[in-house]
Design a protein that fits this description.
Chain lengths: 120, 709
């Protein structure tokens, strides 16, 4: 699996990220770092505790990272969740969170698969 | 060394990944500092802002967000020196607008583009560096001006005062007026092509306009009446003489022979004085001064002296100073005339009574007559000088968007260093609170002592702080702040602080800080907390000592009375009894066994009294062999008194000691100290009368029941 294939698997835009960051090495470094980031755990905790403010921040952070990495799919769902939490606890939040969770798991799954091949 | 010269950039973002993407993009060229939220950022800024070249700042962050960091940067003035680029996926125009209002230089939107980020960072740093260099240039000029002017004004004010009988104020007035007129001319025309540096030079050099008077005979100079025509022609030479002296002050301007000649003909005082002028870097200044000295009595129509120059052949410097000189001479008192009112003086000048002036200058003068009048009246020399400096610096700084000069920063840095040093040396908890954002900064010692972070937000809801000082004390500090005013900003209070598992007394002294707005707004406070525990303990120990009988350790009469009255006040319906106790035949005991034994008897009785009652009851040695007990009882007071009485009879070293006791019950005698004491005293008398070694209760005489004694 190449980095491009990994991007295809997780619903990201490989060409775009390369055009911005201008180095495959850099992109790879950050993609591999992505699963280590604690924001998703923070989001899960905050959603469970119905802590809107913290959930907003965590979703916002995930969105920002996805934008930087051109993880388009997860970025979009995180964006929708962010907006649903921006000015109050919206009815739609739990459902949107489930979408984020599914996209996040798919993304991390693809990254892990890509990483496991690098080790070989 | 190369490492050290790298520019420092602070990246503030709560996502580690975002920080490291930015750090990687900026690469090796910069030294990167990272903060994961606003509080950390403010903490880093407060220590290192002067070293930072740039801050990359996220908006949405826990604890303190990007706007909070910006407010703190504004409040502390850091924003002037450290450019900020906002980094965010937020693109709402309201947010963007707010950020710009708070002094942000630029925006970088997510997703980051490596080229854009690098380009913006480089541009911003370059722009600021350039601005800083410009400010540096301007402020070197200010510094030069300060040095030059203060030295010269010092020298010349003295000379003029001593020689001329004019007040030193004249020189300052001419200087102020010259600067004002030059500014006004600049605003009207660029005919004279005057730079701010020229204006500064001319107004400084204006102080030298009458320097030639030093060579004029004092008899002529200070003659109260009109000068004869010979005297007037001598007087006129002050222009050329002054000019020559200035020529001599610049090496190479005139030949050595000419210099010697000059010194022969004029006073040595003048030569000495000129030698002290800062001419090394001041040749321009001396040349301008030369023009002013020589030609400040020339007139626009060519009818002045010494050279009869006409119109703009007279240098603008001399034109302006001559008008300033005439105006101030008219409006100030002289030996030969009183002061003339402003309006009249103005009219005299316009009428040509003091010769013709450049019409443009006259326009500037008349159109700003009121401004000029207020600028020159009622000022001390110092005020004028200060105002001049201020206006120069304001002028210089206005062009640079209100930035603080490098030199001021250096001074501030120095002050900060000094403050930190003393704060670190003193064992005091020092703190600072800003109202917006609500933030506390503790001195390093304070932070260590209290186990709190050096900087933390929102102290009213900081649980750790609350556990240390308690809600009550914190409320009191806040209440003190509400009571304080800009005129009375200080307050002081004592409170118990809980630190390291111990309760200790502290004194907290605070000064509230107000903005310079009208009306002033509360901006925060400065304060320190001093551990006064030992002092306080010593004091209360002293208080205790003062209230005790030194021999027995029982309360003395006055403190017992105080305590009894307190108890009666707090429990007006309590069941209390007061017992008065006398040692029987104590005088004989002393006589037989000596005073030391007598003292031991008193101590033994005191110990027995204490053991017979509860610790909340009051035991007192009222004086000599007289004692009191004040006790609370529930039901059977007779039994209690009997028990106590028996405890107080004892044998000491083979000597039998007995007591007599009179007891007053509260309900029977009215609940006042006086009433109880009087009743107990009567009962004691009865006990003694009945043969001692017994106790008696006070019984109210029949028919007087219910009345207090």
């Amino acid at each position: 699996m190449t980095l491009r294939e990994c991007y295809a698997a997780l619903g990201g835009d490989y060409d775009e990220v390369i055009s911005r960051l201008r180095s495959e090495r850099l992109v790879q470094k950050f993609v591999l770092k992505f699963p280590e980031d604690g924001s998703f755990d923070a989001l899960c905790g905050a959603m469970a505790a119905q802590n809107r403010e913290e959930a907003f921040r965590a979703a916002h952070t995930i969105k920002g990272m996805c934008q930087n990495l051109s993880f388009t799919k997860l970025g979009q769902s995180a964006h929708e969740l962010t907006e649903a939490l921006r000015s109050g606890w919206s009815e739609a939040a739990p459902a949107l969170f489930e979408t984020v969770r599914a996209d996040y798991e798919a993304t991390v799954g693809a990254v892990r698969e890509f990483a496991s091949q690098l080790d070989v | 060394m190369a490492e050290k010269n790298k520019q420092k950039i602070l990246i503030v973002d709560d996502s580690e990944m975002n920080r490291s993407i930015l750090a990687d993009m900026l690469g090796e060229e910069y030294d990167i500092l990272e903060a994961e939220d606003g509080v950390q950022a403010v903490s880093i800024l407060s220590k290192q802002y002067s070293e930072l070249s740039l801050v990359l700042l996220d908006i949405v962050m826990p604890r303190l967000d990007g706007f909070g960091v910006l407010s703190a940067m504004n409040q502390n003035g850091w924003i002037v020196d450290v450019p900020v680029i906002m980094v965010s996926a937020e693109s709402g125009s309201r947010q963007v607008e707010r950020a710009y209002e708070l002094g942000v230089t630029d925006f970088i939107n997510r997703p980051f583009d490596a080229l854009v980020v690098r380009r913006r960072v480089v541009n911003t740093i370059l722009l600021y560096a350039k601005q800083k260099r410009l400010i540096g240039m301007v402020e070197d000029q200010i510094y030069e001006t300060e040095q030059r002017s203060s030295l010269m004004i010092d020298i010349l004010s003295h000379i003029v005062e001593f020689r001329n009988g004019e007040s030193g104020l004249h020189i300052l007035h001419v200087r102020t007026l010259t600067a004002m007129l030059l500014d006004l001319i600049c605003a009207r025309t660029d005919r004279y092509n005057l730079s701010p540096r020229d204006i500064s030079l001319i107004s400084t050099a204006s102080a030298l306009h009458d320097v030639g008077k030093i060579a004029i005979d004092g008899a002529i100079l200070n003659k109260p009446g009109r000068l004869t025509s010979e005297e007037f022609s001598v007087m006129k030479t002050h222009t050329t003489v002054g000019a020559e002296m200035l020529q001599a002050a610049v090496p190479g301007w005139i030949t050595d022979e000419e210099y010697d000649e000059l010194m022969k003909t004029h006073t040595t005082a003048g030569a000495d004085m000129l030698a002290s002028l800062p001419v090394q870097n001041g040749e321009d200044l001396v040349k301008v001064a030369y023009e002013i000295c020589r030609w400040h009595h020339e007139r626009w129509d060519g009818r002045g002296y010494p050279d009869g120059l006409k119109g703009d052949d007279i240098p603008i410097s001399a034109q302006v100073v001559s008008l300033a000189d005439v105006y101030d001479a008219l409006t100030s008192p002289r030996v030969y005339k009183p002061a003339i009112p402003h309006e009249e003086a103005l009219q005299m000048i316009l009428d040509g009574q003091c010769g013709q002036f450049n019409p443009l200058l006259l326009e500037c003068l008349t159109e700003n007559a009121e401004k000029i009048r207020t600028a020159l009246t009622g000022d001390t020399a110092e005020q004028i000088q200060q105002r001049n400096l201020r206006s120069i610096s304001e002028e210089a700084l206005r062009g640079e968007g209100g930035a603080v000069s490098e030199r001021t920063l250096r001074l501030l840095d120095y002050e900060r260093m000094k403050y930190r040093f003393f704060a670190a040396m003193s064992e005091e908890i020092q703190f600072e609170y800003t109202a917006s954002p609500s933030m506390v900064t503790l001195s390093a010692y304070g932070s260590r002592m209290l186990g709190l972070e050096e900087i933390f937000m929102d102290p009213q809801h900081n649980e750790k702080l609350l556990s240390i000082v308690g809600q009550g004390a914190l409320d009191e500090i806040i209440a003190n702040q509400h009571r304080s005013t800009p005129d009375e900003p200080d307050s002081s209070m004592e409170l118990i602080v809980h630190i390291n598992g111990e309760n200790r007394w502290f004194r907290v002294i605070t000064r509230s800080v107000w903005t310079s707005d009208m009306p002033p707004r509360y901006a925060g406070l400065l304060g320190k907390a001093i551990d006064i525990h030992e002092e306080k303990m010593r004091l209360s120990e002293l208080e205790k000592k003062a209230s005790l009988d030194p021999l027995t350790g029982l309360l003395n009469r006055s403190s017992a009375r105080e305590q009894i009255e307190n108890r009666l006040l707090v429990h007006p319906n309590g069941h209390f009894a007061l017992a008065e106790i006398d040692i029987d035949n104590f005088k004989r005991v002393n006589d037989e066994r000596g005073h030391i034994f007598g003292d031991r008897v008193l101590q033994e009785l005191a110990a027995r009294m204490r053991h017979s009652v509860r610790s909340s009851d009051v035991c007192c040695r009222a004086g000599g062999e007289e004692f009191f007990l004040f006790l609370e009882y529930n039901t059977d007071i007779e039994r209690t008194v009997e028990r106590i009485f028996n405890n107080l009879r004892f044998e000491l070293e083979g000597r039998r000691i007995t007591v007599s006791m009179g007891v007053a019950r509260g309900e029977a005698s009215g609940l006042t100290y006086e009433g109880l004491y009087h009743a107990a005293d009567l009962a004691l008398y009865e006990a003694k009368e009945a043969g001692k070694d017994q106790f008696r209760f006070y019984e109210e005489p029949a028919g007087e029941k219910g009345e207090s004694i």
